[in-house]
Amino acid sequence: MEPEPLPEGYYLPYFETILRDVRSRYDDLLLPRERERAVAFLALSLSARRLYVRMLTRKGPWFRQDGLRYPEIPDLPQALADLAGAGFCALGAQAGPDDLLPLLRRDELESLLDRIPVPRSRNLPRAALAGLLSGEAARPGVRELLAGSVPAAAPLELEWTRLLVFLFFGNGEQDLTDFVLADTGRIRFEAYPVDPRGRLFQARADVDFLLELGQLRLESEAAAAAGNLDRLGQITGTLLETFPHPGVRQQRRFHGLLNDLGRAWERLGDPDRALACYALSLRPPARERTVRLLAARKRLRQAAGLAAELAAAPWDVAEERFADRFLRRLARDENLAAAWVLTRPAPEPVPEIRLRLPRHPSGLVEDAALEAARAGGWEGFFSENALWRGLFGLALWDILFAPVPGAFQHRFQSGPADLGDPGFLARRRDAFDHRMAELAAPGAFAARILDSAERKRGIANPFVDWRALAPDLLAAALAALPAAAGLSVFRAMAPNPLAFGHGFPDLFLHRADPPRCMLWEVKGPGDTLRPEQERWLRHFNQEGLEARVARVEYLPRPD
Which residues on neighbouring strands pair with residue 551, listed in sequence order? Predict the structure, then answer.
């Protein structure tokens, strides 16, 4: 389907929508100068406003003025003058050599080098010419010569525009592109109600915290890569000592950065700093890394106590398996028995089948296993996470998009803003329990999911990959899957769908008469089970499904 055409000047209404929404929703969080900038922008001429947003949406910050000509901006010099006069644009005289050199064509570089003059070899590449000119920039008159060589312009107030976009979307990943994708039909979003009074941020400190956090992440990655211990230490100290404890929706990024810093200090051989970072983090694998570091320092009782906490209330699948194995090893090797170990039976081994197969032309071990299953009378397809996450998203579609306060801030969300929050399920508990009871009725499980797929196909949902859920595959899976097994998956995912929505078996195999399904996690030579894969295989076997690890050994290639 061809994208819908966009009207002339389409980008300006997008930006002004953001500006109006932020002024309406967050005016009390804006500083006086930020409010003044909003008033000044809206007072600009139409052409000036269009030109400013045009520059924002292009890669800059500096542009050749002759590259800023658009049919909907008839008087470019006047638009530039309006912007410069209001402080929204810098012109070429304010640019430095490093700003202007990337804008110059090869012939323009040659001409400038001739005028200085600078001796050089013939037929140098453009980058070499720019390097020569850069090296001459400190000579008297060269900077002025550069400034007059090409009329240039750059948008100002970029921090202000970044703040507006961040407040509107509530994250640092989305921008004006989402308007374009939606209005051209490339992405379709659910028609959920947006509460204009709902706010993700209640205090300016929370906003500044997150904006600074993004910058600190970039700086910490650079410092770790360069081995800059001083800067890494400064960033760590900032997080540990000066940042306030963030609110719920800020936790994931804050604690993720703490984990990254902890691993960096581990690699650099400073376990004390690593432990300090992990102690404040509320995201995996902080507790697992803490247990490992404590054990490495022979603080075994402290490590065992924390591991028992992980076992009793794991944050994710990896914590659950790690705690089980760690505590059993302590009980066996260190004679440090824990009540949890003594009262919990060891998990049953995951059933396996072994296959000796020729290599598939695609090179994928899953394709080789699927072909072998078909030769044995099964139908099937590669399902992995897409099938099970898709079933979850389709069965609970209206619950995911329910008007929970604060869940929907704008019309470009594929799911609720609190999806990763600890209270996600609690806010929808009654609706979820009611839906589970509905789906348990005979025939209701498949009927609701198929109906939801038909009505919502193509609309964005955080759990539904429409490319992997063709109608025939979905119908075949639902015909063979017992509803009780599907409901058990939903209950296991619901407390934290983002954490527990991974690791499902690779292949969904099915037969029609009688309806029956089997699940294979395919492993080629040398491949091992991940914790989340092992957990789901055990889960499906406990629910009465045949879930197996299919270990493939390749036959020798024919001569």
Answer: 354, 523
